[in-house]
Amino acid sequence: MGGNSPCASCKLLRRRCAKDCVFAPYFPSDDPHKFAIVHKVFGASNISKMLQELPVQQRADAVSSLVYEANARARDPVYGCVGAISYLQNQVCELQMQLAVAQAEILCIQMQQQEQQQQQQQQAAALAPSLVQLEPDIDDDDDGDHKSYFLHPHHLLNFTSSNSSANVIYDSFKKESHLYPMTWFLN
């Protein structure tokens, strides 16, 4: 700042602010508390040494970090920033555990829903009448008016996969390993 208005550090230290004051760009006179807290924690000579060792483009960030650490030390003299970081890391761990529990609950619910759907499908399949294809067996003794149809258990069809034009009926019979003779009289 030079001559007219000394920077906050020079005001606090009660010295004349020179043109090349290392503190002037970062500790303006209108914010004296900023330098006071940093000076209390780190000391003016240590701050001056740190700033002079850094390139000019990094000094503003360094001052910002020093102010943050000094404020953290004022709140927690033992741990400072490390206490705040540790607290936040613990929160992250707790939230990750809560997230894992929630994801596990979602997975359990999805698995239960899938199981219920499968049970419903199995129940629907058990209750739905099965489809049966009948094969004609023409009796050679008769004149062709009398046809006998035999129900073959190996011919149980799914309605959607049937490509035959043969007679299809709904069968409420249970499967057995032998043939069921059925006679239909056709006119």
Automatic annotation (TrEMBL):
All residue ranges annotated as the LOB domain in the record: 5-106
Record Pfam families: LOB (PF03195)
Membership in a protein family: Belongs to the LOB domain-containing protein family.
Name of the protein in its database record: LOB domain-containing protein 12
